[in-house]
Amino acid sequence: MTKMKLVYEVTGNYYKDISKKDMMRTFVAVEISNDDVIHSIKKIQDKVNINAKAIDSESLHFTLQFLGEVSDDDSEKIIDALNTIEFSSFKINLKGIGAFPKSKFPRVIWIGTDEGGGNMLIQLAKKVEKVLEPLGFSPDKPFKPHVTIFRIKKKVDDITKELDKQKMIDFGIQEITSFKLKKSELTSTGPIYSDLEEIQARK
Q1: Which of 12, 32, 71, 103 has the smallest number of CB atoms closer than 10 Å to its CB?
Q2: β-bridge partners, 194
Q3: What is the pTM assigned to this prediction?
Q4: Does residue 39 carry a catalytic annotation?
Q5: What is the pLDDT of residues 162-199, one digit of tens each?
Q6: Which domains are seen in the chain, by residue range?
Q7: Which of 166, 42, 41, 56 is nearest to 103 (CA)?
């Protein structure tokens, strides 16, 4: 019997069994690709005065569903299931800023969406959930449309006032034309994301 070797992955707040060399950490995501939106987010990351790790521009995304550790065989089944999803392209307005679990004790700082675009993302996430449920995957919590822009590892003071200064900011429009199955590899400087499959809008 192989002995488990656990390492704590701070970015995901969970323990990873590194003895499973044929396993990979996966999630389904919608990426932020609009240069103007990315530039607006970067400006806020530079402006907000907080001791936190800013998320790299190329890693900004909505997580539709986190799947955890899966095998190569399982990833092929996941890809087949995701490719059955049909959806039309749509636009979202990224706006507002907040914190999880709350601004007095923040662990994550995020930006949100307009109601219409957010509802479209929720519907897409439900389609992902529906096709993956027969494979044994289910979300551990309801999907809430947000893009993480900071992760906070150390305890910081109440940032309510700092966030209130930015809560009405509009980051721009992102057109959603696809979503991806992505792999996350743990490194000493944080996770490295790579694409396993991209599913394009069909309408």
Answers
A1: 71
A2: 183
A3: 0.85
A4: no
A5: 788 877 899 999 999 999 999 999 887 778 899 999 99
A6: 6-200 (3.90.1140.10)
A7: 166
Burial class (CB in 10 A: 0-12, 13-18, 19+), 153: exposed
CB atoms within 10 A of CB 173: 15
Closest to 197 (Cα-Cα) out of 100, 74, 111: 74
- 72-82 and 115-132 are packed helices; what angle lies between their axes, rounded to 10 degrees? 130
Residues 6+ positions from 191 with CB-CB distance below 8 Å: 9, 11, 12, 25, 59, 184, 185
Q: Tell me which of 16, 25, 61, 180 is the catalytic residue.
A: 61
In angstroms, the Cα distances linking 16 to 12, 28, 68, 192, 203 are 10, 18, 9, 15, 39
Six-digit token pair at 101?
């679990």
User: Of 16, 25, 95, 146, which is the active-site residue?
Assistant: 146
* Alpha helix segments (H runs only) across the chain: 35-47, 72-82, 115-132, 160-164
Angle (CA) 23-28-34 rounded to 5° is 130
pLDDT digits (tens, 9 = 90+) for 137-150: 999 889 999 999 99
